Amino acid sequence: MKATWNGTVIAESDSTVVVENNHYFPADSVKAEYLRDSDHTSVCSWKGTASYKTLVVDGAENADAAFYYPTPKGPAAQITGHYAFWKGVTVAP
Question: Which residues does the UniProt record annotate as the domain DUF427 (predicted)?
């Protein structure tokens, strides 16, 4: 799978984990140079607290478009160390 935004591949992996129709990419498959820290968080009742990253590609920003669960709850343990994307990021084979 590939995650693409603004014409740039942000992440690519043959071993994503699918949860609730989101492909979670292993952290080492995500190009960290396109990620910037964000203070935004949200809470899922069964996965726990999500943290976010803003995508920055060629000077364009997509605020909070990458998310991950630093310490997911037990039922979501398989997404530890993985990122998912939304807000206009295309995820496709």
Answer: 1-87
> Which run of H or of E encompasses 54?
strand 48-57
User: What are the boundaries of each domain within the chain?
Assistant: 2-92
pLDDT tens digits for range 31-84:
999 999 999 999 999 999 999 999 999 999 999 999 999 999 999 999 999 999
> CA-CA distances (angstroms) from residue 17 to 28, 36, 82?
14, 23, 8
Does pTM surpass 0.70?
yes
Structural class in CATH, domain 2-92: mainly beta
